[in-house]
Amino acid sequence: MPSRSVLRYVKHRITQHPDTDVTFEAECLWCEWTATPSTDGAAVDLECMSHTGRSGHKGFRRICTSFAMVVRTE
Fold this sequence. Notes:
Blueprint: E1 12-16, E2 23-28, H1 41-55, E3 60-65, E4 68-72
Antiparallel strand pairs: 1-4, 2-3
């Protein structure tokens, strides 16, 4: 007798991990300068503007890192 399978579909959602914060970082596209990582995006932006004022470099790579979890919606 063949075995039978029962399939159960459960809805999920993705959410930010509750024990973590978003971390903001930036690095200059013209030199090796990097901003101090922070949970405050505005502070990183200010560091970039200060670097532009000192160096004239205007291009930056901005990075936002967060951790996520997939959880059931039921």
